[in-house]
Amino acid sequence: MNKLDFSGREQLYYQIYSLLFQDIMNGKYRIGDMIPAESELMESYQVSRATARKAMEMLANDGLVRKRRGIGTFVTALKPKNDLNRVISYSKKNQADSAIVSKHTLDVNIQPANDELASRLKVEIKTPIICLKRLRCADEEPSYLEFNYYEQDFVPEVYNRDFSKESLRAFLKNFYNIQWSYANQEIYSILAEEKLADLLQVNIGSPIIQIKRVSYDINNVPREFVSTFYRGDRHHLEIELSI
Question: Residue 113 pLDDT more than 90?
Answer without folding.
Answer: yes
